[in-house]
């Protein structure tokens, strides 16, 4: 008897990660496809199917479903809607296309919600029914779980916490608004903060070279005690913590999980975020909210999250 498995797909603007995952969350086989190499979505779907068929045959597994985490993915409709960084524009019926090709149940959601699904099944949120997953990458995404279910709202797009305004008239955001949380708390936001503060203090005050300014280089400099880099991380943590206090007020989670490249900064970000969250919480929530980094392997997390969704398909 063949063992059961599902397909997990992390559809990104640059690369798409595709894997086969068993019921215990083990990634049995995976492959990376360059998304931009497929100007026609039909060719992309066909390529996905070829790789899945090859892997499933080699592994001798019985596939039960397909889960997809994608930018602007709509859980209700299975569509991708106006994703700016994908080669295919407009509203795309991704779920229907995959189901027709694979002959399997398909679930589609956005990447942050997929991360929350994975955290709930395989990570730090096992057994938790109320938590928020904050994904910290180029931007800031969020998956909100209440009573054991990801919140999707009326149209499938609930949880865009990266576009909560934290600074009226602040930094311009790619969404068209100004002062969005992700313009301050993200890899991009950290770099912007560093650039602003280095102008005020002078580049000679830091070991970070102007030509090598990235969120990672700033975090590494902060680990070594670089005062400007430390100031940037404290500032970022403060803005994040204050925003998290507001998020607690509307969903009362037992845990908030930080995931993604910026979360690797660990206590450099976590400590100030926790302090400012606690300072701004109503008394009835003080001491109740755990703030932790993800328990998922970042290299596998996106596929595992999509796979967790597929097991519910």
Can you put this structure into words, describing what you see?
With 313 residues, the chain is α/β, with parallel strands linked by helices. Helix content is 37%, strand content 21%. It has two domains: 3-118 and 299-310, ATPase, nucleotide binding domain (Nucleotidyltransferase, domain 5), CATH 3.30.420.40; 127-294, ATPase, nucleotide binding domain (Nucleotidyltransferase, domain 5, 2-Layer Sandwich). It is built from eight helices and twelve strands. The strands form three sheets. A five-stranded mixed sheet has the order 3-2-1-4-7, with helices on both faces. Strands 10-9-8-11-12 form a five-stranded mixed sheet, with helices on one face. Helix 5 (215-223) crosses helix 6 and helix 6 (227-251) crosses helix 7 (267-279). It starts with a strand and ends with a helix. The model has no long low-confidence stretch (mean pLDDT 93).
């Amino acid at each position: 008897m063949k063992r059961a498995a599902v397909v997990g797909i992390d559809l990104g603007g640059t690369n798409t990660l595709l894997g086969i995952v068993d019921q215990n969350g083990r990634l049995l086989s995976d492959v990376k496809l360059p998304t931009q190499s497929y100007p026609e979505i039909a060719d992309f779907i066909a390529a996905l199917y070829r790789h899945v068929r090859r892997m499933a045959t080699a592994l001798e597994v019985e596939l039960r479903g397909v889960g997809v985490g994608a930018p602007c993915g709509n859980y209700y409709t299975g569509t991708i809607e106006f994703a700016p960084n994908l080669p295919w524009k407009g509203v795309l019926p991704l779920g229907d296309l995959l189901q027709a090709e694979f002959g399997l149940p398909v679930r589609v959601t956005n990447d942050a919600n997929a991360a929350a699904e994975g955290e709930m099944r395989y990570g730090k949120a096992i057994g938790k029914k109320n938590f928020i997953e904050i994904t910290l990458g180029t931007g800031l995404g969020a998956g909100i779980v209440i009573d054991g279910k990801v919140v999707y709202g009326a149209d499938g797009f609930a949880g865009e916490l990266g576009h909560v305004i934290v600074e009226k008239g602040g930094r311009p955001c790619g969404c068209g608004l100004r002062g969005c949380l992700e313009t301050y708390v993200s890899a991009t936001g950290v770099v912007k903060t560093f650039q602003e503060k280095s102008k005020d203090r002078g580049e000679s005050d830091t070991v970070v070279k102007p030509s090598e300014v990235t969120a990672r280089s700033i975090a590494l400099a902060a680990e070594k005690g670089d005062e400007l880099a430390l100031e940037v991380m404290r500032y970022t943590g403060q803005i994040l913590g204050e925003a998290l206090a507001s998020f607690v007020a509307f969903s009362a989670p037992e845990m908030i999980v930080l995931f993604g490249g910026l979360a690797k900064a660990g206590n450099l970000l976590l400590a100030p975020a926790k302090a400012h969250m606690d300072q701004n919480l109503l008394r009835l929530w003080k001491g109740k909210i755990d703030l932790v980094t993800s328990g998922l392997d970042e290299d596998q997390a996106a596929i595992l999250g999509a796979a967790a969704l597929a097991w519910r398909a």
